[in-house]
Specification:
By secondary structure, this protein is an alpha/beta fold. The chain has two domains: 249 residues, Rossmann fold (3-Layer(aba) Sandwich), CATH 3.40.50.300; 213 residues, no CATH class. Helices cover 43% and strands 13% of the residues. It contains 21 helices and 14 strands. The strands form five sheets. It has a five-stranded parallel sheet with strand order 4-7-10-1-11. A three-stranded antiparallel sheet has the order 12-14-13. The chain has a two-stranded antiparallel ribbon with strand order 2-3. Helix 2 packs across helix 3 and helix 12 crosses helix 13. The chain is elongated. The N and C termini lie far apart (73 Å). 37% of the residues are buried.
Length: 471
C-alpha cells in the first residue's frame, strides 16, 4: 500500500482489514496470482523453463523448504534470491526497539512481544513496515558457527541476573532474526554437524535449542539450502534427519544447448559492446567461447565432481572482447572484432575456474589442459562451419607453400595483404560471417586457419605473440 496509507498503530492496522499470513502462505498466494496473470515468474533464468522451474513452482505451492542440488555455476543462488519477488512488497511489524525480531502484530512469538500486545491499548502499539528485500538473508557454510545462524547465551544478560532458561538470556542468530522471511544456507555439506542439528530442530519443531535449554518459538521462516551432489550424497556429510525434513530437492543443470549457454553468457557478461570503441563479436567466436566450457565439462583432465561454472564462459567472453577493444584503440579500428588470437589471453580468466583431475591430467599443467580444451572447441565449431560452407579447398592453398602470419595486434588490413594471392579460395571462407569489413574478414581468416590447424591439415608455429600457419 502507498506510504501515506500505511497504518502506524495496531488499531489502524486492524481497521484496514489486514490479515496475518505465514511466509509460505504469502509466497504461495502471490505466486498463484502471478501464475494466473501469466507473469514471467523467474526473469533472467535461461534454460530451466521445462526442467527446473516447474519443480520450483510445485514446491512453492506445496509450502516446502527447498534444497537446490547442482554443480557450481548453475544459478542455485540466483534462484534462491529470486523467491523474494513472491513476497509482499512490505509487511507490518511491531515497532519497538526491545523486540529482537520483526514481530507479527497479530501473532507475536517472543515474551516481550506477547506482553506488549496483551497489556497495551491497540492504538499505543506502534507499527512499522518491513520491505521484502530486507526479508532475505543467506550464509555460506564454511566457518559458520551455531551462534551465527541460531544464537547463543548472552553473558552480559546472565551477569545482570537473567536465567539461562529464559529467552531473555539469548542473543539471536540469523534465522530467528529472519522470522517471517527467507533464509538460505549455501553448501550445506560443509556445515558443522552441531549446526545441522540446530537446523533440523528448526525444520522439525520450529524451536531453538541453545546449550541444552529448549526455548520454544513459533518461528515462521522459509529455509533454502544449496549443495553440490558430489558432497551432498557422500555418506556422513549431511545428517539423515536433516535430509529427511527438506521438503523438495530441486536438481539444477548446465545449459542443455549451446545456444542457451551463449544467451546466458551475453546476459551475464554485462559487457558494453558499444560506446566510443565498439566491439563486434562474430557468431563463431561466441560459439567457441561457450564450446570451451562445454568441452571442459566433458574433459577427462578436469575434476567433474567440482563442475565447470557458467562463470568460465562469462569471464572468457569479457576477456576476449577486452582484447579486441584494446587492439581497436591501439590501431584505430572501429569496430574491433575478436579473433582466435585473442583467445591467447584466456588463461587469466580461465585457470582459477578449472580444477584439474589429478589422476586424469597426469603431468599436464593447467595451461596445457586449457590449450587442449580450446583447440578441441575450435575444431568442433570449425567442423560445423565446414559442413555448412565447404571450406576444404582452402587447405589446398597451403600445399603450394603459402605462409600466413597472424596475431592479436596485427592490423586487420594486413590480413588482406596476406591472402591477396588466393582471393577465390578465401571468398568461400568469408561466408562464415558475410561482411566487407576488414576486421570481420580478419577474424574469419584466423578462424579458418585455426580450424585447419586443429583438424591437422596445416601446421603452426608461435613466437612473441605472432602465429605463422603453413603446410
Amino acid at each position: 500500500m502507498p506510504p501515506t496509507a500505511r497504518p502506524t498503530h495496531l488499531q489502524a492496522l486492524r481497521d484496514s482489514g489486514w490479515r496475518t499470513k505465514t511466509v509460505k502462505q504469502e509466497l504461495r498466494d502471490n505466486f498463484l496470482k502471478m501464475l494466473e496473470r501469466g507473469d514471467e515468474l523467474f526473469p533472467g533464468i535461461i534454460g530451466y523453463e521445462n526442467t527446473v522451474i516447474p519443480e520450483i513452482n510445485i514446491a512453492l505451492i506445496a509450502g516446502h523448504d527447498l534444497l537446490f542440488l547442482g554443480e557450481k555455476g548453475q544459478a542455485k543462488s540466483r534462484l534462491m534470491r529470486s523467491l523474494v519477488r513472491f513476497l509482499d512488497e512490505e509487511i507490518p511489524y511491531i515497532d519497538d526497539p526491545a523486540l529482537p525480531v520483526h514481530e507479527d502484530p497479530e501473532k507475536p512469538i517472543t515474551k516481550i512481544g506477547k506482553q506488549l500486545v496483551a497489556e497495551s491499548r491497540p492504538e499505543n502499539v506502534k507499527i512499522a513496515w518491513w520491505p521484502s528485500k530486507q526479508r532475505y538473508a543467506e550464509r555460506l557454510s564454511p566457518g559458520t558457527k551455531f551462534a551465527d545462524i541460531i544464537g547463543e547465551i548472552d553473558p552480559a544478560k546472565l551477569a545482570a541476573g537473567t536465567s539461562m532458561a529464559s529467552e531473555d538470556a539469548l542473543h539471536f542468530g540469523l534465522i530467528p532474526r529472519l522470522h517471517r522471511g527467507i533464509f538460505a544456507m549455501n553448501e550445506i555439506p560443509e556445515l558443522d554437524e552441531l549446526v545441522q542439528v540446530g537446523l533440523f530442530n528448526i525444520l522439525e519443531e520450529r524451536d531453538v535449542q541453545i546449550r541444552g535449554y529448549p526455548v520454544q518459538f513459533d518461528l515462521d521462516v522459509l529455509i533454502l539450502f544449496s549443495a553440490n551432489p558430489a558432497t551432498y550424497n557422500r555418506s556422513g556429510k549431511v545428517i539423515p534427519q536433516l535430509k529427511d525434513r527438506i521438503g523438495t530437492v530441486i536438481h539444477t543443470h548446465y545449459p542443455l544447448e549451446r545456444s542457451q549457454g551463449i544467451e546466458i553468457m551475453e546476459q551475464e557478461a554485462g559487457f558494453d559492446l558499444g560506446g566510443d570503441y565498439p566491439v563486434l563479436v562474430p557468431p563463431f567466436m561466441k560459439e567457441i567461447i561457450e564450446q570451451i566450457s562445454i568441452n571442459a565439462r566433458k574433459s577427462k583432465f578436469i575434476d567433474q565432481a567440482s563442475g565447470v561454472s557458467a562463470r568460465l564462459s562469462i569471464a572468457n567472453y569479457r576477456t576476449m572482447a577486452a582484447s579486441a577493444r584494446q587492439r581497436g584503440v591501439r590501431l584505430g579500428e572501429k569496430p574491433s572484432v575478436p579473433r582466435i588470437s585473442d583467445l591467447g589471453h584466456l588463461a587469466g580468466s580461465s585457470l582459477g575456474k578449472l580444477e584439474l583431475d589429478l589422476m586424469g591430467s597426469h603431468q599436464m599443467s593447467e595451461r596445457q589442459v586449457l590449450e587442449a580444451i580450446q583447440a578441441e572447441a575450435i575444431k568442433t565449431v570449425f567442423e560445423e562451419y565446414v559442413d555448412e560452407h565447404g571450406l576444404k579447398e582452402i587447405s589446398d592453398v597451403f600445399g603450394k607453400g603459402v605462409k600466413i602470419e597472424v596475431g592479436d595486434l596485427l592490423p586487420s588490413k594486413a590480413y588482406a595483404e596476406r591472402i591477396k594471392r588466393v582471393p577465390r579460395a578465401w571468398e568461400k571462407a568469408f561466408e562464415v560471417n558475410a561482411s566487407e569489413n576488414e576486421a570481420v574478414r580478419a577474424s574469419c581468416i584466423e578462424f579458418v586457419l585455426a580450424g585447419l590447424y586443429a583438424s591437422d591439415q596445416i601446421s603452426r608455429s608461435q613466437q612473441h605473440g605472432r602465429i605463422v600457419y603453413e603446410m
